[in-house]
Q: What sequence folds into this?
């Protein structure tokens, strides 16, 4: 018995020894549950697809925890090769000069073909720098869309609203009459703020939405969005809209329980909804205000990107570049899109999904990418603001105060503007 | 009494050394680091620092929610400490009087203490859930539309309830052993002198419990201040929004979630000064009245 164990140990040591001839890289990510399994599958397929490199994915908790862990590791000189950082943390990562190898540089230096125009328009420049160079590799990208309960809308005799005017005058009263809370949403800063600005092609911050060199100022205190929040608060008071707090699932649950007829969530919520909702649901674009624009534009992406961190040997950088190449292949993108509901990031992958007939089976899965591919404007590429996690916290707090009737819309937006700008000014000082 | 005197002058320092080393590594060093960082705005990745003087302090306290957080922390600490002490004492007195099935009562009452804070927080969330919580349905029965996560007051109520519930058994254990250490001869003598049970409790039992009560008071304030973190974190579900949070939670929120190292350090220095002041007050004012038998 003992001899057997010894032999097994020796065998294992031998295998490990031969494996070390390969270049090993690590990938820290924030994808738990079913998403984490899809991540592991991607890594497994990459490892099986060739014999030179081995990638090890490591789950590090939620987005904030992953970023904090990365910073701690960076300061100890033990950072992973690749880390997944979400959109609100992008400015922190890019603000730290020399922490990240821009993905475009990395790919070109390692002779991996790269053309930014292969990426779909809504994704292309979101993680790019001011000159348009791609810095972070878009990974899990989603966008807010409107889901609706098909039966509820039929019962009320309405179709999903195209504009907020239609919602207020036709859809919401009919749904209320039919015994439903007409609508809810899960993330006020993302869906009703950032994407409000992109859907209506409004400037969100000075300095080219924050991509420029100087210290940006947030332009949130404007009449269009204040009118929107005034309307939402009126709807909440009149029972035409449900607000269940800042938590994501608190707002999604009543839609799944069929109390709420329409719910604005992420295009990536599709996979989860398919399992949790035992009723017929479909999806459409986020409504817009006709009073603000007659030509609604594309929305922003949410989600996260993969970033190659500095401080690694050139063979490891080569491995990272090869992995990025593998990841952005149409087959892997289609796999990821199908498993999770995140949008495919390249046109080739989108075409593959179409030719495979994926959208004939599940037309709802196409809404996100269609909305991202709508005609854009000057202010629909994205935004880059520092200390953005805290700015979102300020928004959530003030919106909560509006909904609870503790503050007027004017007061709340004034506070958001003042405290966001204070945070942006502080952030400017972190980079010395 | 004979005083023992150390003949070797270095021995006491040697004996104190391990304790001092622990304090230095786990308190003095981090505290000094916090004080230093509180005067800088730092880049989290490389630690590049820009000196800003007292700006972190003024920024922190002039934030619109700072005052509200401080006021909430005060009332939260007051209610959690007061209620869990009062209910713990009440239960201990009741359990002390029970003759039959004493250990069964004791075990049941202590049980809650074995629950880890995150689990307690999870149970609390379930009980107060907007859509499925039984306590929400119970409140609706009385016409109270309890909306945790939407209404500031309702969330504060739910947090206080869960944090108090979690602490009661701890106080119960100490009060019960305190009560059992009061000599029965004293109690019997009091019973002969006075018929009113209430009066006997306040004039005899309660003063004799004073050392226990003082010890518990300090521990409960510390608990409400620092250790309720887990419960709060779970109840706000990672999105603080318009929910009440304590000052300690805010330090975490700005430092670890928001990565504002300097701002968060300034807040923790303010907190450190407050706790220091509170401790001085407790020992100077209250402990003088405590009679150690």
A:
């Amino acid at each position: 018995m003992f001899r057997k164990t010894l032999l097994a140990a020796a065998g294992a040591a031998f295998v490990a020894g031969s494996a070390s001839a390969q270049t090993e890289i690590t990938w820290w990510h924030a994808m738990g549950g079913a998403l984490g399994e899809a991540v592991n599958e991607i890594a497994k397929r990459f490892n099986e697809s060739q014999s030179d490199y081995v990638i090890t994915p490591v789950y590090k908790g939620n987005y904030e925890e992953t970023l904090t862990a990365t910073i701690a590791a960076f300061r100890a000189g033990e950072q992973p090769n690749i880390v997944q950082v979400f959109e609100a943390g992008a400015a922190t990562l890019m603000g730290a000069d020399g922490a990240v190898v821009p993905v475009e540089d990395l790919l070109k230096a390692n002779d991996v073909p790269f053309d930014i125009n292969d990426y779909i328009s809504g994704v292309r420049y979101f993680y790019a720098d001011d000159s348009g160079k791609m810095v972070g590799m878009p990974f899990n990208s989603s966008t807010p869309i409107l889901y609706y309960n098909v039966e509820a809308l039929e019962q009320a005799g309405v179709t999903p609203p195209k504009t907020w005017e239609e919602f207020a005058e036709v859809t919401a009263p009919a749904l209320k009459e039919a015994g439903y809370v007409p609508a809810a949403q899960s993330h006020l800063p993302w869906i009703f703020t950032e994407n409000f600005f992109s859907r209506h092609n409004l400037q969100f911050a000075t300095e080219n939405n924050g991509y420029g060199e100087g210290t940006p100022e947030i332009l949130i205190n404007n009449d269009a969005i204040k009118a929107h929040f005034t309307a939402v608060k009126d709807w909440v008071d009149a029972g035409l809209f449900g607000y269940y707090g800042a938590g994501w699932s608190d707002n999604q649950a009543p839609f799944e329980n069929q109390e709420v007829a329409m719910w604005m969530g992420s295009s990536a919520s599709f996979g989860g909804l398919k399992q949790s909702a035992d009723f017929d649901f479909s999806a459409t674009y986020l409504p817009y205000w006709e009073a603000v624009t007659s030509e609604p534009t594309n929305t922003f992406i949410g989600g996260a990107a993969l970033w190659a961190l500095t401080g690694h040997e050139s063979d490891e950088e080569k491995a990272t570049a090869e992995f990025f190449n593998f990841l952005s292949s149409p087959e892997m993108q289609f796999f990821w899109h199908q498993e999770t509901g995140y949008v495919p990031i390249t046109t080739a992958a989108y075409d593959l999904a179409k030719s495979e007939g994926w959208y004939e089976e599940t037309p709802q899965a196409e809404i996100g990418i269609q909305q991202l591919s709508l005609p854009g404007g000057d202010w629909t590429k994205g935004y880059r603001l520092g200390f953005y996690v805290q700015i979102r916290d300020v928004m959530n707090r003030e919106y909560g105060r509006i909904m609870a009737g503790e503050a007027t819309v004017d007061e709340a937006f004034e506070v958001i503007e003042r405290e966001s700008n204070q945070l942006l000014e502080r952030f400017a000082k972190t980079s010395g | 009494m004979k005083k023992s005197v150390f003949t070797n002058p270095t021995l006491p320092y040697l004996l104190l050394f391990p304790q001092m080393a622990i304090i230095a590594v786990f308190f003095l060093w981090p505290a000094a680091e916090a004080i230093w960082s509180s005067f800088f705005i730092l880049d989290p990745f490389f630690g590049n620092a820009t000196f800003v003087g007292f700006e972190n302090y003024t920024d922190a306290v002039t934030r619109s929610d700072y005052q509200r957080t401080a006021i909430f922390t005060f009332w939260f600490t007051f209610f959690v400490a007061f209620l869990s002490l009062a209910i713990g004492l009440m239960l201990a007195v009741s359990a002390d009087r029970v003759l039959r099935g004493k250990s069964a009562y004791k075990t049941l009452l202590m049980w809650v203490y074995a629950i880890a804070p995150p689990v307690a927080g999870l149970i609390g969330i379930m009980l107060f859930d907007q859509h499925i919580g039984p306590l929400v349905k119970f409140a609706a029965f009385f016409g109270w539309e309890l909306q945790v996560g939407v209404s500031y007051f309702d969330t504060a109520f739910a947090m206080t309830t869960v944090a108090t519930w979690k602490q009661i058994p701890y106080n119960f254990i100490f009060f019960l052993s305190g009560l059992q250490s009061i000599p029965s001869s004293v109690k019997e003598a009091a019973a002969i002198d006075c018929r009113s049970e209430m009066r006997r409790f306040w004039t005899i039992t309660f003063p004799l419990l004073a050392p226990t009560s003082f010890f518990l008071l300090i521990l409960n304030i510390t608990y409400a201040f620092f250790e309720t973190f887990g419960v709060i974190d779970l109840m706000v579900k990672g999105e603080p929004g318009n929910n009440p949070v304590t000052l300690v939670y805010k330090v975490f929120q700005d430092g670890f979630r928001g990565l504002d190292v300097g701002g968060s350090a300034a807040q923790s220095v303010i907190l450190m000064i407050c706790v220091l002041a509170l401790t001085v007050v407790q020992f100077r004012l209250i402990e003088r009245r405590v009679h150690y038998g």
Q: What stands out?
A: Chain B has a mean pLDDT of 89. The CA atoms of residues 41 and 226 of chain B lie 25 Å apart.
